[in-house]
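TA notes, week 10

Several of you asked for a full example with nothing omitted. So below is the full record: structure tokens for the whole chain, then the designed sequence directly under it. When grading your own attempts, check the secondary structure regions first.
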């Protein structure tokens, strides 16, 4: 009779369900953090920025709304990352030639060159796994996970992209403040 000796399975078999869940969350957060640090060290951009570049690289031109849908992120959250990428010269934000009311985002030559050097980001790998789950199982997981996050008191509203700084106004609202610390009052 063969004995399962892989430490990963032995460790998991002695943990309670709660321990397994918390351990899995820790491992996932670590994976995402390591991926973010790797992108910063190798390319000088955050993991979220690399994820946006990756999704933008799959289609020649996307609107902000289309990009938000591709990254499974709120428009306001992805907009912060897009602004940083425009400032870094990695993407452009131009008027659509067919509809001047619409802005389109495109990779610059520097953005395309960066993507060629990049390894897949953790968010992309995670989405691939989630998308492969059966619909009913993914829906059940989403509902359960959302219930847990809401129950522990996480802030409502759109979340920023992973490991990205939030705009100052949002941080102030979350902290119950109306102006930056140290700002003069009238």
């Amino acid at each position: 009779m063969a004995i399962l000796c892989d430490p990963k399975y032995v460790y998991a078999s002695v943990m309670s369900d709660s321990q397994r869940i918390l351990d899995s969350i820790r491992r996932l957060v670590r994976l995402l953090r390591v991926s973010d640090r790797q992108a910063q060290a190798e390319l000088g951009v955050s993991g979220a920025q690399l994820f946006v570049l990756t999704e933008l690289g799959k289609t020649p031109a996307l609107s902000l709304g289309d990009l938000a849908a591709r990254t499974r992120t709120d428009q306001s959250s992805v907009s912060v990352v897009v602004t940083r990428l425009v400032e870094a010269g990695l993407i452009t934000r131009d008027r659509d030639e067919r509809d001047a009311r619409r802005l389109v985002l495109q990779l610059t030559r520097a953005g395309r060159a960066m993507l060629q050097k990049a390894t897949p980001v953790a968010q992309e790998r995670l989405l691939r796994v989630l998308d492969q789950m059966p619909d009913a199982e993914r829906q059940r997981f989403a509902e359960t996970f959302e219930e847990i996050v809401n129950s522990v008191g996480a802030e409502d509203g759109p979340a920023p992209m992973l490991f990205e700084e939030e705009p100052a106004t949002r941080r102030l609202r979350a902290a119950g403040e109306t102006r930056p610390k140290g700002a003069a009052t009238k």
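Residues 179 and 186 are 12 Å apart (CA to CA). Use that as a sanity check on your answer.
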